[in-house]
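agent> fetching stored inputs for the cytidine-5'-triphosphate docking request
agent> found them:
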Amino acid sequence: MNVVVGVTGGIAAYKAVGVVRALVLAGHEVHVVPTEAALRFVGLPTWEAISRNPVTTSVFDDVSEVRHVGLGQRADLIVIAPATAAAIAKLANGIADDLLGTTVLASRAPLVIAPAMHTEMWQNPATVANIRTLRERGGTIVGPADGQLTGADSGPGRMSEPDEIVAAALAVASGSSAAGSTAGASSSSTGDLAGRRVLVTAGGTREPIDPVRFVGNRSSGRQGVALALAAAARGADVTLLAANLDVAAPTGVRVVAVGTAEELRRAALAESPDHDVVIMAAAVADYRPVEVATAKIKKDDQGDELALRLSRNPDILRELTAARRAGQTIIGFAAETETNRDAQLALGRAKAERKGVDLLVLNRVGWTEGFAAETNEIIVIDAAGGIVAEATGSKASVADRILDLVS
Ligand code: CTP
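agent> prediction call returned; pasting tokens
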């Protein structure tokens, strides 16, 4: 595989030598593109020797082969390690004023970014917004880790270890990352949810009528699965309560299969105390048949009309918030068919209060929107009813937006 490793100007550049080395030893063709500032930390001969390829920082070298276009087009994967706050800002804005910037713009390869900076810079709203932009475009962010920084201070901002960056990059290239697909996730020890336990419910419950039929809903489980994968990619320990998913259950998270609302309720109440965050994305049937026939209901016994008597299911989310342990964050979803934004918000605000959640994710559903779709459009409100985020895009990018708030 052709890999471009972009190195930007931070002290962690010395650790990027390990990234290049591991990729070369794994048999990949690696081209290092340092910025001018990166060369103040680690010199050009080191990059050439380790990568076994010529290295330049300038778009004006090898002009005949238009080096940036060549590198960008040939790349199967681009890894930027370390990515400084300035580099992240430039990437998010498509600024192409050096060989690395032009190479990234000229490429369609997946982009993996390992940030490294001081905590204040990492938490600055400008950096937070730039990271969000890069994630929304499908970029994968590895780390940063929480630990000792270059000075006397410590906190989140330290570049992830080379092994972890390489593992994440190769997973992305093979299409198995949370950012690129829903195929799998590996829990990282360094993301912003590292050490947190996250419980996600996904899918739709089915309430049996007889041994072959049920009352159900059209929830596919895609948004919940995307949330579980994104939380795992940010380092959380994830449990997914999966109710009749239309999509494959993800790997890399603990999956507990449930069928009915009562099964989901029992599992959620049992699991919740062990989790720091609960995200209730499942569509729970509000009613279940009063009687469940033990044998298949036959038309000849029923005539032209069949009436089903239904009784109300317990509200799981309300039970979870009533039993909330100190410090636990609980997030609900509200799927509404209401098309008027103000009316939808009013329903959401009432629901957030009724359910006692910290955040409520509102999305519109209809015959064609929401459930089965690949994309989603959400408004997130907090317990006081204020709008704290709005997002539109793939269910993976929407999941990341929600987890930004959780984080
Ligand atoms: N929910 C739940 N238990 C139920 C019904 C819903 O835990 N019996 C949860 C859902 O998982 C979701 C939130 O409550 O996170 C809102 O679900 P929604 O169906 O929108 O709300 P309802 O409680 O059904 O309210 P309404 O009938 O007014 O839409």
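agent> quick read of the result: The longest strand covers residues 329-336.
agent> awaiting further instructions
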